[in-house]
Amino acid sequence: MSIPLRTRIKFCGLTRPEDVDAAVAAGADALGFVLWPGSKRAIDEQRLAKLCARVPAFVTRVGLFVDPDPTLVSRCAEHLDLLQFHGGESPATCMAAGRPWIKALRMRDGLDLHAAAEAYGGAQALLLDAYRPGVPGGTGETFDWSRIPASLAKPVILAGGLTPDNVAEAIAAVAPFAVDVSGGIEAAPGVKDAARMAAFLQAVRRADDERLGA
Ligand SMILES: O=C(O)c1ccccc1NCC(=O)[C@H](O)[C@H](O)COP(=O)(O)O
């Protein structure tokens, strides 16, 4: 008999020490740090080291890359538990980093999730995000959750436009392994809002109670 898991929560795009502390205090399972210079939420390696040093054991530190130079990945890896590849990286490129990784897939028309789950068989999970041409992530937009098959060979991390107001509906529709949010818990790009983080956490917990019949 398998025991249903509570939905894991990843907050992405943290840039400030006080936001890291607030996210940990709220109860996030994983924190994401954007190492792609094109993002409004980008941080450099020095800031990554400082922010990651504040993260306690049992909270996963995730580094987010978009078609990175492998030397950047290896320089950052010592601070990280998990790599998130958010660009057009091939399975071989993701594997070559030699660290646990997840693959973000943007839900463009025609994407075959079963084929992707097979191709990215070395991933810990697939992060499914909204597709907007030319924008690799952090769009603040949802996608049609009914496109996600009920059964997939990889755990699903649901992303894209989640907020404290819609995350319960998303969990009821998809029952993902985890949810990922960036813009929905912000006061401004890269500036998280402690009250919205807490509200998001509470909404997930309530949805889980509903789902698991607690
Ligand atoms: O957040 C960014 O600026 C970003 C830029 C480039 C690639 C990925 C990026 N974010 C990735 C994430 O994991 C976000 O949490 C995910 O895209 C959802 O963002 P949002 O729709 O704002 O919740």
From TrEMBL:
Domain of life: Bacteria
Keyword hit for Cytoplasm: no
Pathway: Amino-acid biosynthesis; L-tryptophan biosynthesis; L-tryptophan from chorismate: step 3/5
EC supergroup of this enzyme: isomerase
Reactions this protein catalyses: N-(5-phospho-beta-D-ribosyl)anthranilate = 1-(2-carboxyphenylamino)-1-deoxy-D-ribulose 5-phosphate
Keywords annotated in UniProt: Amino-acid biosynthesis, Aromatic amino acid biosynthesis, Isomerase, Tryptophan biosynthesis
Entry EC number(s): 5.3.1.24
InterPro entries named among the record's database cross-references: Aldolase_TIM (IPR013785), PRAI_dom (IPR001240), RibuloseP-bd_barrel (IPR011060), TrpF_fam (IPR044643)
One Pfam family in the UniProt entry: PRAI
Domain N-(5'phosphoribosyl) anthranilate isomerase (PRAI) residues, every copy: 10-203
Gene Ontology molecular function: phosphoribosylanthranilate isomerase activity
Family: Belongs to the TrpF family.
Name of this protein: N-(5'-phosphoribosyl)anthranilate isomerase
Organism encoding this protein: Halomonas rhizosphaerae
Organismal lineage: Bacteria, Pseudomonadati, Pseudomonadota, Gammaproteobacteria, Oceanospirillales
Gene (name only): trpF
